[in-house]
Write a structure and sequence with these properties.
2 copies of one chain form a homodimer. The longest helix of chain A has 22 residues. In chain A, helix 4 packs across helix 12 and helix 21 crosses helix 25. Chain A folds into 3 domains: about 250 residues, Rossmann fold, CATH 3.40.50.970; about 150 residues, 3-Layer(aba) Sandwich (Rossmann fold); about 120 residues, Rossmann fold. Chain A has about 575 residues and is an alpha/beta fold. Chain A is globular. The first copy, chain A, has a 7-stranded mixed sheet with strand order 7-6-8-9-11-10-15, with helices on both faces. Chains A and B meet through helix 6, helix 7, helix 8, helix 9 and helix 11 of A and helix 6, helix 7, helix 8, helix 9 and helix 11 of B.
Chain lengths: ~575, ~575
Amino acid sequence: MFENITGAQLKSMSLGGLTALCEELRKKIIKYVVQNGGHLSSNLGMVELTVALHYVFDFPKDKIIFDVGHQCYTHKLLSGREDGFTTLRKRGGLSGFPKREESAFDCYNTGHAGTSVSAALGIAKARDLSGGDYDVIAVIGDGSFNNGLVYEAFNSLKPLKTNILVIINDNGMSISPTVGSMHEYLEVLSADAEEQYHKNRRAGIFEKFGFEYDGVYDGNDLAVMIERLKEIREKLKTQSVILHVLTKKGKGYSFCEEHPEATHGIGAGKPSVPAVEYSSVLGEKLTELGAKDEKIVAVTAAMTGSLGLNPFFEKYPERAFDVGICEEHATILCASMAAEGYKPYYAVYSTFLQRSFDEIIIDICSQNLPVTICIDRAGISGADGETHQGVFDLSFLAPVPNLTVAVPKDKDEFAAMLEFSKDYGKPLAIRYPRACTHSFGPVKKVEAGTWEILKEGDGRAAILACGERAIARAFTAAEKAEKSGVRVCIINARFVKPLDKKMLDALKESVIITVEDNMAAGGFGSLIAEYFADAKKRVKVFGYADSFIEQGGIDELMDDYGLSAESIADYIIKSV
Amino acid sequence: MFENITGAQLKSMSLGGLTALCEELRKKIIKYVVQNGGHLSSNLGMVELTVALHYVFDFPKDKIIFDVGHQCYTHKLLSGREDGFTTLRKRGGLSGFPKREESAFDCYNTGHAGTSVSAALGIAKARDLSGGDYDVIAVIGDGSFNNGLVYEAFNSLKPLKTNILVIINDNGMSISPTVGSMHEYLEVLSADAEEQYHKNRRAGIFEKFGFEYDGVYDGNDLAVMIERLKEIREKLKTQSVILHVLTKKGKGYSFCEEHPEATHGIGAGKPSVPAVEYSSVLGEKLTELGAKDEKIVAVTAAMTGSLGLNPFFEKYPERAFDVGICEEHATILCASMAAEGYKPYYAVYSTFLQRSFDEIIIDICSQNLPVTICIDRAGISGADGETHQGVFDLSFLAPVPNLTVAVPKDKDEFAAMLEFSKDYGKPLAIRYPRACTHSFGPVKKVEAGTWEILKEGDGRAAILACGERAIARAFTAAEKAEKSGVRVCIINARFVKPLDKKMLDALKESVIITVEDNMAAGGFGSLIAEYFADAKKRVKVFGYADSFIEQGGIDELMDDYGLSAESIADYIIKSV
């Protein structure tokens, strides 16, 4: 009924028509997300607000930045991209995030939390400098609002002398329920919203930063949203404004309303709680270790459930800390507790660990403190695309002194590495993908810098592989190569730092092939290449080439970006 | 008169005695810093507050964390380290920062801004968990207070349910004068301090986060400081407190009071404004480019002067942005202005760029936006030690797709690279040390991915060197090697990304030696090692080995950590 309706068409519609449109948009979102997978709950909460924004503002002339970006589906449906939804988050298909490359309606790509206000300020300042006449809007959830970047951006609103609209989309959830004083403050503002409804209320903190505060309103009430945005649009000529709205995550789909955390991101097919994987090994093992050693504490930046930490958080609430989407603060909290004799475990997605890079160097490693970093979703993560691939961690961790970097071959070895970490007494990072899909036999005793021969060869070629995905490809490649008569040695290179030099030196006669689910530049293979650089030895590095990795299926992306078993096998056959 | 006085001895002294002690400490700081170099102004401002802290609290049982750490000299003088001051910031000598390795009085190492409140929370939480009974204090300047980390830490005070004291040492300065709304708010709180003096005043923002606010007081008034701290110490049993004090940067030394920015950090000898160096080339050239192209904007995180940006800021104030110590926000501001057609230049010290790592990947490079990052103080920076060496940037930038990384051979080439950057249209990083000490002839036209042969060889060995320090060592090494009859080719490897593959391929007969003022792991040499890994070619990487680099003279550190010209020459002689 409303196929590919645009913002321009919206403007001539009645409130009744717009309300019907909202219902249809909601149905479409459910249909497409159930079909293709994607972010459901946050998008269902954003329908009315987004329709109101398109009704009141003129996109793409006006600019909108969605923080993190999960909640942009209605915006995409209203900007000529409905046809793309059948390919949502698929290879070559519509992105789950705002993408400049995709549409003029997306002015700034997002993916990581807290960037929207800074970006809105930069865009607004550019507008002022070039004499442009349009509005700039940042839409940010209460979860992202915990990130320090927001404070940095707020702090520079006045010095930058520009006007923006920040919409706080308050649904009480990050991926986990939102924590922290700022969220408590938002709740205080919301508490008596009932009686003060529609009255202009004061919010001291925001006014100090130079915003006029307008809230709290029901963000799922279309008429109210339109009225507020119309009034605010006038104000933006002279003033920056915060609009604080409450929305219901999962609105209109009862399963999501009841399970907002589990349905934050879902796979294709019926929405369901995702199966437990490496994260569940972490949760189970850490809970077990926590019973033996009361110095063990766990820290997460708003992802307790998806990192598998629920069992630990339930059993040891006093030793479990969710600090909100604050990866830097989380890292220092770990370092400082370690400085006082605790054994902190910081669990985090690989892509978000990039936020902690400086603190890993300065706070954890230069003080040589026993923090264990559990890096989940390492390697290609798939459908979220460029901003979420965990393909940099081996490269950025390799040059950090005092750090040990481990990559388990499978979940049993991961559990053994966690056991090992308890009394290791030094900074340790363990990286692993989401899914446990392979198993490679009994676990060899875990000692730092020791590898394991998984399969003996004939001495002509050895594959050094990091992690289960790389090892699986090594086996497939070896099998292919064996048809040409070469028996390939396969080594579980389970420590990227330190290297197993004894084993490396024993391989001097072989051609060496390295395989890792990481960028080639600066990763495991580059350490091996450098190790043998002066030895006139053949080393071939299989890792990802120098480009961003788009969205798609994990296996197809691994094949296409440089890790196909065929290419490994071909190299071996032609090289020995 | 007060040689090596300790906190314990302090407690029995009269106010008169303590006042005399302050004067003597101030004299000592001036004497030692003028002798050895160091941070002068911030330390002179902190004398009375630190004496009061030692008088009231029991260190090292109580714990104190100095944010950034420049201001800890009085604390060091009062904790048995006076003898070390003759070696302040020298190789093997007393650190200019708090150092756990140095004294039990230093509980947490600092160096980068904004970490102290997070660290205090972690330490306090560890205390609570283990049933300890001591106080935890973070001392933070108003400059660091702009950093988002502080907000993240404040935001988790209530959920962590622990008590700390945060002392805001408000002197109106970062290295540059402090900017931003939070600082403006601190000023508002200070404005009527005169009339409200000694009265308990309210500060809504801080109370929202769970602190009791106590301020504003004269931090250079010893009696007031003692009185406040005594009262606060009692309160800390049940409550977290912010103590807001005003101090005078450079207090008691008129040259410093008049030139607080120039005397923030000074070299040995008479305090003076540091000589201009690479930073002055940046300032001059960028101002020149700014006249030709009004799309050029400059961004800094509180270091306008030390990065050389003053001329640009003075000439184009509307296109110049100091956002305070907010490296992440600064990076996104650049990316978003670039998204709207501007050409942002983000100038920053190498060590602080680590804070922008995620935003370089996600905001600048995954959107392929034309931001030029000018990385100052790259390579070993010397006397500040482990937390300030700029030795990771080539490693962490190498794996980032879409990024071009340039390293000028000297200041003329730096100017040419800046000229080149104006219309390059893609993400570009240029890294350089502080001092221009060498010059290597006329500049070959700058094109991305092109190198320059500085000296032809006899085909047996080629040194690929990045940046003036590495090139200088290459020449010295080549000279030594020539005595053994080998004529070494020297190449100015001025682009680390992309590599000059044409030139590399032409070198196939030579032994390759790479030299860089950066970690060996993941740096320039590792890219070369990987490039030739499959070619049975000898490559030798000279970069820093896998350890943190302590404080010292730049040349001695370069020699000792892996870049001595002798070791390069020796390798060449024995390898060809």
